[in-house]
């Protein structure tokens, strides 16, 4: 290799490094954003566990890519055809073939192990959750009820989406929440992007051999839009709901109101009335995220335990 070729390689390395540095700096991303490699910000430890799996998988893939790219460029730079002499052959090199077989196998096993560990953690259902909620989907809205909380008339605390009521799923932070999913008509899907978790909701999940229960813990207060992520008919795109994560003390206050009667109406507080009564800023504004609900006179289904045509928010 001549002097010109010897100096060309370090210069190429410097230029490549400079281009990479400029590319990273020009994105304007923070260190946290760079390490997430495009993975969105989650609000549960389960989401963070999946983010870590994603981050290290990408790092491993990039490391393999760098090695492969390096070998390609090395071959191109130093093993160009210069004479008619046949270069040294490696097709019967047993140690090299063993390495080619063992290294990918080890990589697959390691990736499978960490994927299985993460999946088991995300799908774990420890006994005795702090809060249990039934999420019932129907064309084209949502019902959320809490079997462990009862109104003065003995009914579970329930919120049903309607033309005047956004379906609000109010949950406590730093608490184990267990979700039971079902549908009253067709297949829908319970999806909250900040949970990094989606699961279909089936009518009669026990007959469809579906695991319709999962758990998570929300790390911080906030409002998060939930969506149906399974095409379910005419107004599928409008079948949204809202998760309102409150601190434990606010959630207890909310449930205390939901399990008592509103003196102004003589009926149990609705979700919107309870949040307004709490007066805790934007977090307690009934329409903080999803806006005005769509006209549910166009609905084709009904929530659980309520007659057709009477989907009234409560």
From TrEMBL:
Superkingdom, natural source: Bacteria
Biased composition (Gly residues): 302-314
Main location: membrane
Necessary cofactors: Cu cation
Enzyme Commission identifier(s): 7.1.1.9
Alphabetized Pfam families for the sequence: COX2, COX2_TM
Domain Cytochrome oxidase subunit II copper A binding: 128-257
Membrane topology of this protein: Multi-pass membrane protein
Record flagged with keyword Metal-binding: yes
Bilayer-spanning residue ranges: 55-77, 98-116
Disordered: region residues: 294-314
Catalytic activity of the protein: 4 Fe(II)-[cytochrome c] + O2 + 8 H(+)(in) = 4 Fe(III)-[cytochrome c] + 2 H2O + 4 H(+)(out)
UniProt-recorded name of the protein: Cytochrome c oxidase subunit 2
């Amino acid at each position: 290799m001549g002097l010109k070729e010897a100096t060309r390689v370090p210069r190429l390395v410097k230029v490549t490094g400079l281009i990479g540095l400029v590319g990273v700096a020009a994105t304007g991303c923070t260190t946290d954003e760079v390490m997430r490699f495009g993975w969105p910000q989650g609000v549960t430890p389960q989401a963070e566990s999946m983010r870590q799996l994603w981050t290290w998988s990408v790092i491993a893939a990039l490391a393999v890519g760098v090695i492969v790219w390096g070998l390609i460029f090395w071959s191109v730079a130093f093993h160009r055809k210069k004479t008619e002499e046949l270069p040294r052959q490696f097709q019967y090199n047993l140690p090299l073939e063993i390495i080619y077989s063992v290294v990918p196998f080890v990589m697959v096993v390691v990736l499978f192990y960490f994927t299985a560990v993460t999946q088991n953690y995300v799908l774990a259902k420890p006994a005795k959750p702090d809060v249990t909620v039934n999420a019932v989907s129907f064309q084209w809205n949502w019902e959320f009820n809490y079997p462990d909380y009862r109104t003065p008339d003995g009914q579970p605390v329930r919120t049903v989406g309607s033309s005047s009521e956004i379906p609000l799923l109010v949950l406590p932070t730093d608490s184990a929440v267990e979700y039971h999913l079902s549908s009253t008509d067709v297949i829908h899907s319970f999806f909250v992007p900040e949970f990094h978790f989606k699961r279909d909701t089936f009518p009669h999940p026990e007959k469809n051999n579906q695991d319709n229960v999962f758990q998570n813990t929300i790390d911080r207060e906030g409002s998060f839009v939930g969506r149906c992520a399974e095409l379910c008919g005419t107004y599928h795109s409008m079948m949204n709901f809202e998760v309102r994560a409150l601190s434990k003390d606010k959630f207890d206050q909310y449930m205390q109101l939901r399990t008592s009667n509103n003196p102004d109406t003589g009926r149990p507080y609705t979700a919107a009335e309870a949040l307004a009564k709490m007066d805790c800023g934007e977090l307690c504004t009934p329409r903080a995220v999803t806006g005005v609900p769509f006209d549910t006179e166009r609905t084709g289904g009904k929530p659980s335990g309520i007659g057709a045509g009477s989907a009234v928010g409560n």
